[in-house]
Design brief:
The chain has two helices and seven strands. Helices cover 37% and strands 31% of the residues. The chain has helices spanning 3-40, 131-148, and strands spanning 49-53, 56-61, 66-71, 78-82, 88-96, 99-107, 114-120. The protein is α+β, with helices and mostly antiparallel strands.
Amino acid sequence: MDSSSLFIGLIIVLVCLLPLLFVIRSKRKNNLKINTIFNSIGTPFRPTIKELHVNKLFALDRENKIFLFANIDRGRDVHIVRLDTVGKAALEEITIGVEKKIFFVFNIPGGTDQRITIYDTSVDALHATYWHENKVMAQRWLKLLEEHIAY
């Protein structure tokens, strides 16, 4: 085998391996961010169900009845809801001009409603590209949360 075919073979191997390395690196970064979020919570939180979708983390601790929503791109955007204090959960969609938003609304008896923004087109660089997927994800999680609400 001459050196030119060896060189071409190495280039082909590198071209095939680079995307895999980037995927592995991205997954490791996301797992580190998720673990940081879980460790920063003061309450005991052991998620039995967790799902990551377009850098949004949905997690549910069935034992302690705690729901967590976090946007892992914006590290401080973490919301925790104790489902044993919630009376009702609902999904709300708002359209103002070209801006669209999806909210979870948790009705707490004797208190105020807690609103969590699931999706907002004003902060999405692709402008409503993931609208449908986020809506389907929110509907699926709403059904799951309604099963765990005490009231």
